[in-house]
Design goal:
With 291 residues, the protein is an alpha+beta fold. It folds into two domains: 6-166, Sandwich (Jelly Rolls); 182-290, Arc Repressor Mutant, subunit A (Orthogonal Bundle). Helices cover 42% and strands 17% of the residues. It has helices at residues 100-103, 109-118, 126-138, 144-159, 182-194, 201-207, 212-223, 227-245, 250-256, 262-273, 277-286, and strands spanning 6-7, 18-25, 33-34, 38-44, 50-53, 56-59, 63-68, 74-77, 86-93, 122-123, 165-166. Helix 2 (109-118) packs across helix 4 (144-159) and helix 3 packs antiparallel against helix 4. The two termini are 16 Å apart.
């Protein structure tokens, strides 16, 4: 059964830069949802809870900080968490809080890159969280211009932090992904348009207007993965969305996403996700119990 995914209309008005909620609770009870705004979520003392961001599902530790981009599915569920006192700080801000021309300035390049990664969800390292937690918890005590300056400062510190990890696969976001290269964006637009059929390296190299060998080195340097790995990631992103959003069986999903061999699909999916497509769908559906 396809799960219900709610489009949230947040309380953030066009007259405000951001909104902040700080609360202590015993359980997570908000359903899987998405909204137009960025969301920075600090969660303390909720070990065993389950997090969904796009197509990524994981059980969380006692301390986590996640930045979710616009229109990306997300939710936290009680799952195995038995804590009687969960602390949560949620900050939501407009996706145009930093105007695009401003983000292109050199001094904001790290924030620009972080926002691009947030389209797939970002989990920050424990070291980063422990360093910024006092400031996040104290942000609600600031007002007016001081609060905006502090949020900007926090976002900058997050953007320059080490060991941040993207959560969801390419293809699972409702927003178009952006890269710091028009050539790479053109290639990924092509892959996202044709992922359901066989795509040769030579074909995509022509899209990039590069020789095959040069293109292979180029994409590895700019993305950090090979052409095949990038294509498979896009296909898996679309596959996980189909497993979530449709009632197609696993074989249908595999073939619709360009995997002509069901065994290869299952093997690739499990290597990337740590579970089979069937287990992923069951896990996702099972999460509804905790809403």
């Amino acid at each position: 059964m396809k799960p219900d995914i709610m489009r949230e209309i947040t309380p953030l008005t066009q007259s405000d830069c951001f909104t902040l909620f700080s609360r202590v609770k015993k359980k997570f009870d908000f359903p899987l949802h998405y909204h137009e705004e960025y969301e920075l979520n600090l969660i303390v003392n909720a070990a065993g809870a389950r997090r969904i961001v796009g197509d990524h599902i994981d059980q969380i530790d006692d301390l986590e900080l996640v930045l979710v981009g616009p229109n990306l599915y997300h939710a936290w569920f009680t799952h195995k968490c038995e804590s009687p006192e969960i602390r949560e700080v949620t900050i939501q801000f407009h996706k145009d809080l930093f105007e695009d021309r401003l983000l292109r300035r050199n001094q904001l390049s790290f924030i620009k890159t972080m926002f691009e990664k947030a389209q797939r969800g970002i989990l920050f390292s424990r070291e980063t969280i422990e360093r910024l937690r006092p400031r996040l918890l104290a942000l609600s005590q600031k007002n007016g211009f001081d609060s905006v300056l502090e949020l900007f400062s926090i976002l900058h510190d997050l953007s320059t932090s080490r060991n941040m990890r993207t959560l969801s696969d390419a293809g699972s976001s409702n927003e178009p992904l952006h890269y710091n290269s028009r050539r790479i964006e053109k290639v990924f637009e092509y892959l996202n348009a044709h992922y359901s059929r066989a795509i040769a390296l030579s074909e995509v190299a022509k899209v990039a207007n590069m020789p095959e060998a040069s293109f292979s080195r180029f994409i590895k340097k700019r993305i950090g993965s090979t052409f095949i790995d990038s294509l498979n990631e896009i296909r898996l992103g679309h596959a996980t969305r189909m497993l979530i959003d449709t009632t197609h069986n696993v074989a249908e999903v595999a073939y619709k996403c360009g995997f002509n061999n069901i065994s290869n699909f299952n093997r690739t999916f499990k290597k990337k996700k740590g579970c089979t497509p069937k287990e992923f769908r069951q896990s996702f559906s099972g999460t509804r119990i905790f809403i």
